């Protein structure tokens, strides 16, 4: 993926991040960490998605 323009898939990555299945969510976070940069258009959506996920009561991060 390095060296190829994948900006067309940014919104699809955010959709995968918002999946209810943890395995899909994990893939979305990995793709975002590898493909997004500071000028990606969906950075605000990504930030809000992470904030929303971490605020849930049954969150895996709060174990």
In short:
The chain contains 3 helices and no strands. The protein is mainly α and 63 residues long. It has one domain.
Task: Describe the overall structure.
There is one protein chain. The protein is mainly α and 63 residues long. It has one domain. It has three helices and no strands. The chain has helices at residues 10-17, 22-35, 43-54. The chain is globular and about 40 Å long. This is Adaptor related protein complex 3 subunit delta 1. It is a peripheral membrane protein. Keywords: Membrane, Protein transport, Repeat, Transport. Pfam families: Adaptin_N.
**Estimated radius of gyration:** 12 Å
Number of strands: 0
Number of helices: 3
Q: Which bin fits the share of residues in helices?
A: 40-55%
How are the SSEs ordered, and which strands pair?
Elements: H1 10-17, H2 22-35, H3 43-54
Pfam families: Adaptin_N
Domain Clathrin/coatomer adaptor adaptin-like N-terminal: 1-60
Protein name: Adaptor related protein complex 3 subunit delta 1
């Amino acid at each position: 993926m390095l060296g190829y323009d994948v900006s067309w898939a940014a919104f699809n990555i955010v959709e995968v991040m918002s999946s209810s299945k943890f395995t899909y969510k994990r893939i979305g976070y990995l793709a975002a960490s590898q493909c997004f940069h500071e000028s990606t258009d969906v950075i605000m959506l990504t930030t809000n998605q992470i904030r929303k996920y971490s605020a849930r009561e049954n969150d895996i991060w709060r174990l």
